[in-house]
Amino acid sequence: MNSRLSQIAAQLDSSDTCDRILALVALRQVSAVEAAPLIKGALSDESLRVRSMAVRALGSKPSADADEILIRLLGEDPDYEIRADAAAALGDLKNTKAFQALVRAFFEDTSWVVRFSAAVALGQLQDPRAHEVLIHALRRDESVIQQAAIAALGEIQDLSAVDDLLHFVQAEDWLSRQRLAEALGNLPTPKSQSALSYLSKDEHPQVALAAQRSLQRLQHG
Q1: Which domains does the chain have, with CATH numbers?
Q2: Which of 54, 59, 79, 167 is 20 to 30 A removed from 185 (C-alpha atoms)?
């Protein structure tokens, strides 16, 4: 172990939570092979914040068993924040072997934060099998879950979802309309272009801007 890595390892053993957090930040500059063992050690830290950072770090500095660890945390950890972080990290890894675990979390987890994170991660996997799950998410009452599903359907470029997505053209929540405008930029159909033309005149400037950008992408793509 080189001196820099030894210093970080010692910092992770500090009794000061801030020191341990700074050590995890420092691991961003270390190769995944060197960082992963230290990150895994921090997964059992007494501090929720340190554990949370370690879980997310596995998504960017994975070990060979990172998927297995994160899937276990997603399904079993008693803290909803850790489960949500595990879902997000699985999305970062983009390994489709996490698909079933994310679907299960979406349907079964009691926390909307975890369900939201699972829906976002399903989009990151870009696995077309997510279609039915995400269409179901569109029909949930929670607007944040709907927004995650809209974005995810755009990410997986699910052209068969366009009709379902267009129900949100006049959504009351402007964030839903913005997510729709962004998603439609990945879904090149005549209906998408028509909806984007409409959204480009939206009363909310961020919705209108997103629609204009998506229209340009479709027209020049």
Answers
A1: 1-63 (1.25.10), 65-156 (1.25.10.10), 160-221 (1.25.10.10)
A2: 59
